Amino acid sequence: MATSGKNGTPPATRQVPERCAQCTDRAERLFCNLPEEAIERFDEIAMQISYPSRSIVFEEGQRAAGIFVVCSGQIKLAATSRDGRTMILKIAVPGDVLGLTATLNDLPYEVTAETLEPCQIRSVRRRDFLEFLSHFGDVSRHAAQVIAREYHEVFLDARRLALSGSAAGRLAQLLLDWARTSSCGKPELRFTMALTHEELANMAGTSRETVTRLLNQFERDELIARHGASISILHPVDMERMVG
Amino acid sequence: MATSGKNGTPPATRQVPERCAQCTDRAERLFCNLPEEAIERFDEIAMQISYPSRSIVFEEGQRAAGIFVVCSGQIKLAATSRDGRTMILKIAVPGDVLGLTATLNDLPYEVTAETLEPCQIRSVRRRDFLEFLSHFGDVSRHAAQVIAREYHEVFLDARRLALSGSAAGRLAQLLLDWARTSSCGKPELRFTMALTHEELANMAGTSRETVTRLLNQFERDELIARHGASISILHPVDMERMVG
DNA sequence: ATGCAGGTGTGATGGCGATCACAGTGGGAT
DNA sequence: ATCCCACTGTGATCGCCATCACACCTGCAT
Prior knowledge:
The structure is a homodimer. The first copy, chain A, is α+β, with helices and mostly antiparallel strands. Helices cover about 40% and strands about 20% of the residues of chain A. The first copy, chain A, has two domains: about 20-160, Jelly Rolls (Sandwich); about 165-240, Arc Repressor Mutant, subunit A (Orthogonal Bundle), CATH 1.10.10. The longest helix of chain A has 27 residues, at about 135-165. Chain A is elongated and about 55 Å long. Chain A starts with about 35 loop residues before the first helix and ends with a helix. At the A-B interface, helix 2 and helix 4 of A face helix 2 and helix 4 of B.
């Protein structure tokens, strides 16, 4: 289920330093890449927490208590309708910030956040975070940019749901979007799929069975290839074309 | 088509002051409500433009040139798929800021903005705007909050599209969401619909004919009432229930 | 009046895909 | 080995709703 392959290694919960100031991955993480003195202050107000696999970080509808920065592990963000349908918004990875918009708007969290593997998370309470923003002007710029990026992602979701006529189109689009962002940079177009068909279905706005059928279809048509949990997109161009 | 009734008055293009500093509506507009000195500077870098009805302010896919603040008039924000399907994201009203996320991310505009009536718009070029943000720390906070709100709106769109199983559900949800935000504050639940059935369909992710049928259905079931272009939601509770 | 164009109402039809049902499969426990 | 459980594969059915087709109803221009 996790990113780890068939080898028995536990999911990639690399050890995370005690303080953000010592984190070596900071530079490549949009939000974390803050000026020195801001980071120092951040370390003072942030609380480091370890979550076991399959635990709930926060739940849809709860009044926003603060923000959560993912340090290690994957986290599923999903919203549920009254009658049990589920929409998976995205799988958050290290560097992502959760609960930002709800915290800024002082609204309930829009989604439920559930760990898919053991995770390390830093959290900051709402009050402290807002004060932090006021104090360090350019952190707000950072935050704005982070939210702008999140906006763009949800926009793509909405677009996919509204404009990709068929289930096949939505799934194809999802795989494409995903391959692009997962292998950030060059079109690696091969990625490991840590999700079940059911979860894919909830991201593509279709049903479990349809996903199964479509993936097999795609494979028969040689649009994709699968080895174990990894998927390669063989013909991105043809793939694009079926998005509609 | 515009908000004006059957009387021959031109659509509500109230005169807008030359400078934001003199704008009396500023206080109630999230983004515009800036500290004095920021407003002064904003007036220096902003350009005031009048657009006739049915004109394009910017187009989906264009590299972001800057932001646009709506001073008067309504503007349709829509995205289109290769094969001509259209998704209407929202109808922007005075106080809304367009192109914010694209500008911050230095990405192409996500949508096309088309005026529905004569509009007054203030625009700021990307470079100037970014510099403006750097200079006035707390404006970034404002911007972040504005984007957070936009995020929330798109999120609701995505949620509606993904979770409201039936076309009826999506339309009902749309009318509800809309009545709530349009009559901001108390549940007025009566609002004028400046849109054609076709456009409603493009917002609800369904077809023109289905919208026609559903609206009649809703009226027969006494969920809504219509007088001319205005719609009242009679039984919000029953309405909620059919969202699914 | 006449024509036209954009919007609306309504039936008929067909296809996509949700849903149900159940059979295989594989990996973890014990 | 064996059970079990979550996941995957596949057929059958059936309902929603997109689409086509066409009638009607404004307002507007000529």
